Amino acid sequence: MILISNGKEIATDVDFACNLLSQAKGLMFSRRISKDYALVFVMKKTQKVSLHMLFVTYPIDVIFLDEQKRVIRTDSLKPWIGSSSSREKVKYIIEMSHGKNRKMNIKEGDLFEFDNRCQ
Question: What is the pLDDT along the chain (119 residues), one digit of tens a residue?
Fold first, then answer.
């Protein structure tokens, strides 16, 4: 599975968090992720979402997407103490390696492409 934004390949190693348990766990207790890894959270319905970095020992970048997979907001989170909010209702959240948002120039309004593996 390949994660694409505006025609650019963002990640080739992609996992999905489809249920409440996998979404609550997220990247907690994981080892550092590779530069080509992304974890895509698929919400059952659009909703405002808050994230925390409890038990995540490395920094990450986060992207909040609406139902059309359009970027609503991006953020970078610090290990252990980082937190973020979508501020608006979202359908998808992508967690990936720190610095990826800046490196790939991901910004509000960008459109992502991927198959929803939670359906």
Answer: 788 988 999 999 999 999 999 999 999 999 899 999 999 999 999 999 999 999 999 999 999 999 999 999 999 999 999 999 999 999 999 999 999 999 999 999 999 999 999 97
CATH of domain 3-113: 2.60.120.1140
Strands 90-97, 37-47: pairing is antiparallel
Domain boundaries, the chain: 3-113
Distance CA 110, CA 106 (A): 7
Rounded distance between C-alpha atoms, residue 27 and residue 92, angstroms:
15
Nearest to 62 by CA among 39, 79, 42: 39
Q: What CA–CA distance (Å, rounded) separates 64 from 87?
A: 9
Strand partners, 83: 52
Query: What is this structure's pTM?
Result: 0.95
3-state secondary structure of 77: strand
Which DSSP letter does residue 31 get?
P
